[in-house]
């Protein structure tokens, strides 16, 4: 069981953990021990509240597939237990990031001073670029 907050938790059946071999440079144990953890979490089948599911599915995160499955690969540590803990912590961070409601954007206008500064800087750039041009040749 993974506790996300005081009132939100995930059951063990919702998270699928698989041990796989780590990628990277070799060593003595490289082809023998499966220390990396592959975590799969199906958002649509989970017991999360609907608002959290909707926010998770709307995230533009590469770890979330089109089918709504979160895939996390943890291979930073040498032991399987630490990688398992790392993967669960990363899943917890992902879910807690959508628990906070996003602030609504208030549409604003640029100030008159900022508009004026922008226009004068554009005019200055224009004159600088015009001075770089070759002079036109006129026939007399």
TrEMBL record:
PANTHER family found in the cross-reference section: PEPTIDYL-TRNA HYDROLASE ARFB
Example of a GO MF term: peptidyl-tRNA hydrolase activity
Taxonomic source organism: Colwellia maritima
Keywords assigned by UniProt, alphabetized: Hydrolase
EC number: 3.1.1.29
Cited NCBIfam families: PRK09256.1
Lineage: Bacteria, Pseudomonadati, Pseudomonadota, Gammaproteobacteria, Alteromonadales
Descriptive protein name: Aminoacyl-tRNA hydrolase
Gene3D superfamilies: 3.30.160.20
Residue ranges with Basic residues bias: 119-132
Chain positions covered by the region annotation Disordered: 100-140
Similarity comment text for this entry: Belongs to the prokaryotic/mitochondrial release factor family.
Enzyme class: hydrolase
All copies of domain Prokaryotic-type class I peptide chain release factors, residue ranges: 7-132
InterPro entries to which the protein is assigned, alphabetical: Pep_chain_release_fac_I (IPR000352), Pep_chain_release_fac_I_sf (IPR045853)
